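Interim report, section 4.2 (structural modelling).
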Amino acid sequence: MNFYKKWFWPLVMPSLLLFTMVILYPFIMGVVNSFLAWRGTYYFDPDTGTRATSMFNSFVGFDNYKEAFQDTRFISALVYTIKYTFIAVIFVNIVALALALMVTKITKSSGLYRTVFFLPNMLGGLALGFIWQFVFQIIFTDILFSPDALYLPFLRYMTQDSNKALFALAMLSTWQYAGYMMIIYVAGLNNISSDYYEAASIDGSSYWHSFRKITIPMLMPSFTIVFFMTIANSFKLLDQNVALTDGEFGTRLLAMQILRTVKDTTPPNYGKAQAQAVIFFILVSVITLTQVTITKKKELEM
Amino acid sequence: MKELTVVTSKSMNANYFLKKRLQMIGLYVVLTLIALYTLAPLWLLLVNSFKDQSEIISSPLGLPSGFTLSYLTNAVKEIHFFKALLVTASITSISVLLIVVVSSMAAWMMVRNKGTASYVVFMCFVAAMLIPFQAVMYPLIQFFDDIRLKSATGLILMYGGFGLSMSVFLYHGFVKGVPRGVEEAATIDGCNIFQMYLYVVMPLLKSITVTVIVLNSMWIWNDYLLPFLVIGNSSTKTLVLELYFARITAGQFGNPWQLIFPAVLISIIPIIIVYLFLQKYIVKGISDGAIKS
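Predicted structure of the assembly:
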């Protein structure tokens, strides 16, 4: 209709303008800057050793990327992030699915349990990180798992060791995000018609058999969403990392590494930070797109 | 013989129901334990907001030995609670309003106009969902500094931009299911485009609007990094920033728990209250959002 055509650009323009200002232009500049000796407020000219007169004199090719890959902090943050994502995705998904199966099974006060499990999601990662820091440093270390009580050395001083902190961070994220993912799994479970289960039980199918042959395949669309969200969230995790260990003891995740690179270097090397950010973008896109393609394919096969 | 069969089937039935009942009880026990585990950190937060540093360390789990509001009032002062609350609430609500209006208009027009331009613009928004914040943050801050918008106003515009992609996507999916008929009838009645948007389209988009509001307010309210980069340690800070800087300044020599606990407690009270009142909409918003995408 002509009516809609006339109004298309006027009504789409505000969103396009915001999009260009906040995402498109900074994104393009980000990619460009990752090839320049960018110092944040000015461009550095590597030939003359002074401020560049135009940003084109500041071109350094792939030097920022080379520097990034030679930086042990960046490499260790990269490895740490991959390890963390792996552990967190498994933890969060198992707990969320178990919670969803349980709350859909019970008949009374199911809503109350859902409300409680979802609650931690409403609170910010920073505030929660502070509370959990106390849990790990005082409650776990001095009370629950001290030599006088249930002595479990692994669960003591968890925020002061790179490997233990990985699990501490995963415990915190599971506590926080499992309720959210549970909601998505519950929506998926409610979409499965009870006819399938009735037919299966008449045929003498056991609970586990029905779970494997009916629940899992029918839940595939939910798996796609939940895996996408948990992988993306874990890769980009920052607030909890800042609050729990602040990157001490080799516990920096990539998001924090990019943020702190400009503090690690004098003068602040924004070009190198930006190169890390571009690598980060490529990594996140490749991993999430691969995951979505794989799980979507599984949806069709089942 | 006949009697016997009846008896066995009865006892088998009883057995079956007993087993089911025990299973159900077991489920409730497990769920209650997990619920207690979920609430435990909040219990810590509550009881330790009324203790001094040494009592917090020596008996963190128990009830406070005396009742005093001094730690809470001190925290209210330290984090400039009422001002920060006002700042956070204004930034969140204006940003969300901006996102709702801008993205619903855009998505509506994109669905009603099927052409290359409309498709390309939509795909740009969808593709942008893959860009992590870290990839754009430094140039973004630099750009907003250059155009003199490194301020609370700029922050609202940035939230508008970051919230758009997902919201346009959600609205786009929803508008497709809204029939044109009503809108056509409205044009015949002499409605102009803005009346149509306000009185015809928006009421039909109510349920997806709830989802958009919930998803966006949750992250904007609790966001740490963007306000940190844009506002930093200035006089108008959001609640999360106040909390961060209070912790940093007081915590140079160890952890000032007697400030952190009450400060975290008062900063989360507003959200808990909102959650308890609106939890039905919030949970529905989340699960609708997940199904739509």
